[in-house]
Amino acid sequence: MSAETTPLSSTPRTTLRRHRERGQADRAALYEVLDAGLICHFGVVADGDPIVLPTAYGRDGDTLYLHGSSANGAFWAADGQRVCVTVTHMDGLVAARSVFSHSVNYRSAVVFGTATIVTDSGERWQALRLITDHLIPGRWAAARQPTGKEMAATAVLSLPLAEASVKIRSGMPGDEPEDQELDVWAGVLPISVTFGEPIPAPNLRPEIPLPAHIRDRAS
C-alpha cells in the first residue's frame, strides 16, 4: 500500500461529527489540499494564550515544515507542544433558496501533532528550500541563497502528518423539496485564486528577462 492510499488516522479529534459524508479517508486527499495551498494557519498556546498565525509552509512526504522569524515567541512556544495547522480553499459560495441551506464549497485540512523546532542545519536548509519552491517552484535555485545571519534569523518548525482530517464540500445547494418551487435564484458563485501579470521591481535592470519559473507560475 502506497503512502497516498494509506488511510488517514481516526482519532477523537479527527472524527467528523457533522456532514461525515464530506470527509476524505485517504492521504492523497490530504496531500492535494496541502499542496494546492499557499498559506496555512498555525495555532498554538503561547504564554497561556491561544494564538493563530498565518505562515508559509512546505511538505516533504509526511512532514510539514513551517517557517517564521526566530524572534517569534509563538514558534519557540510550539517546540515540543501540541499544535494545530489548517489549510482551507474556498471554491464557491452556495446560494440556496432558503437562508438555512446556504453553504460554501471548500476543501480543508486540519492537522494535529507535536511540533519540533528544526535545529539540524541540513534539514533547515532543505525545509526552507521546500517552502520557497512550494510558493514559486524553481525560485530557490534562481535566487541568492540565505547567508548564515539570515538562517539564524529564521525559525523552522516540523510537524508530522500523522493525525489529520480532510473535509470537502462541492456541488449545488441542498434545498428542501418544498423550497424548490420558490421564486428564489439558487446556484453556486465560483471562487478561484489566480495570479496576475508579473510586475518587475522598479529598480530591476531592463536587460534582466522574466524567468521561466515566474512566467510558469503566473500562467
Quick summary:
With 219 residues, the chain is of the alpha+beta class. The chain contains six helices and ten strands.
Ranges where pLDDT stays below 50 over 5 or more residues in a row are: none
Helix content: 10-25%
Report the radius of gyration as a whole number of Å.
Answer: 21 Å
Distance between the termini: 35 Å
The best one-word shape is: globular
Oligomeric state of shown chains: single chain
The chain-level mean pLDDT equals 93
Q: Helix- and strand-based class?
A: alpha+beta
Q: What share of residues are in beta strands? A: 25-35%
SSE string, helix = H, strand = E? EHEEEHEEEHHHEEEH
Number of contiguous helices: 6
Question: What profile does the largest beta sheet have?
Answer: 10 strands, antiparallel
What is the number of E strands? 10
Which terms would index this structure?
21% helix, 34% strand, alpha+beta, single chain, globular, 219 residues
